[in-house]
Amino acid sequence: MTFPLSYLFFFLTLILGTLLSISSSSWFGAWIGLELNLLSFIPLISIKMNPYFSEAALKYFLIQALASTLIIMSSCLILLAPMMSMSLILMALLLKLGAAPFHFWFPQIMEGLSWPQTILLMTIQKLAPMFLISYLLTSPTLSQIVILSASLSAITGALGGFNITKLRKIMAFSSINHMSWMLIAMSISDTMWLMYFFFYTLISSSIAILFHFIKAFYLSDLLSPNYPKSFYVLTLPLSLLSLGGLPPFTGFIPKWIMIQILILNQMIFPLLILLLSALVTLYFYLRILTPFILLMGPSLSFNMKHPSNTSLSFFLPFISFLNFLGLLLPFPFISM
């Protein structure tokens, strides 16, 4: 997919809105940053005159406008009822984030986007709301709301992906599940959720790039023999296992650190929910792995076509090194 040059301007204003919201010293400035981010993202997901892109853009605009309205209304109540006002702002930010129980819009919008657009929605669009939520966690009540939302996100992300054959929806529920780890980390330390977000961004973006190059949107698309090279048949399954947090891949590193910190903080019940949900999400990735196991058989691999793809050939070694970092250098992370 080729992007017009004008969309570079919208991408820069998208980043500018995120930075403005993060660095603002008042809720009014943060709201302006969120609105600038919203108005910049709408053109980025309306690239083609396509009903799916238009529907996704309209749904995203309505949901984000509702959350912005809640932020403005809550700011007006901050002098009368400070705790209620902060709770409403927190819920509005959770709505913008797509965390449970306000997750209903996230899989539907993901389904109507292309893979490069889903990378923006899963990564950059989550930065500003997450920073603002971390600024809000100044009282035990707000922290308990975030932990409750994290537990619901873990359960929703785990159970929501059953019997789904659309890869974008599977990635959406996976994102909701990973959001639970970041919300729990947010209630403990800013460094923890930033570390987890960094690893999640790299791994999920690499998988979306692979899906984009082979134009795969359904599980059945992965059965096509027209793969660029046999090395890809090994790269994507192991990258999915890394996203699922299976040791000793890179995705296990932030989860291993989070497990240690949750045990030290005696948060055993949230940790139990997160671990059980992580095991269920591995089922989604194993479903995607099944076609690759079949394709590695001699009868099918003999007839596989290998068209040249220079771009994918350039990305494959980098993606492999990124997802196998924990396998190559495990000892510094085990000792942490």
TrEMBL record:
EC category? translocase
Q: Which residues cross the membrane?
A: 61-81, 87-106, 143-163, 194-219, 231-250, 314-334
Sorted keywords for this record are: Electron transport, Membrane, Mitochondrion, Mitochondrion inner membrane, NAD, Respiratory chain, Translocase, Transmembrane, Transmembrane helix, Transport, Ubiquinone
What name does this protein carry? NADH-ubiquinone oxidoreductase chain 2
Give the EC number: 7.1.1.2
Predominant location of this chain? Answer: mitochondrion
Pfam families (UniProt xref) = Proton_antipo_M
Any one of the GO CC terms:
mitochondrial inner membrane
Note the superkingdom of the native organism. Answer: Eukaryota
The subcellular location is: Mitochondrion inner membrane
> What protein family does this chain belong to?
Belongs to the complex I subunit 2 family.
User: What's one GO MF term for it?
Assistant: NADH dehydrogenase (ubiquinone) activity
Q: What biological function has been recorded for the protein in this entry?
A: Core subunit of the mitochondrial membrane respiratory chain NADH dehydrogenase (Complex I) which catalyzes electron transfer from NADH through the respiratory chain, using ubiquinone as an electron acceptor. Essential for the catalytic activity and assembly of complex I. Core subunit of the mitochondrial membrane respiratory chain NADH dehydrogenase (Complex I) that is believed to belong to the minimal assembly required for catalysis. Complex I functions in the transfer of electrons from NADH to the respiratory chain. The immediate electron acceptor for the enzyme is believed to be ubiquinone.
Q: Which PANTHER family match?
A: NADH-UBIQUINONE OXIDOREDUCTASE CHAIN 2
Where does this protein come from, organism-wise? Answer: Gandalfus puia
GO BP term (any one): mitochondrial electron transport, NADH to ubiquinone
Q: Which reaction does it catalyse?
A: a ubiquinone + NADH + 5 H(+)(in) = a ubiquinol + NAD(+) + 4 H(+)(out)
* Domain NADH:quinone oxidoreductase/Mrp antiporter transmembrane positions: 24-79, 83-279
Q: Its membrane topology, per UniProt?
A: Multi-pass membrane protein
Q: Does the keyword Translocase apply?
A: yes
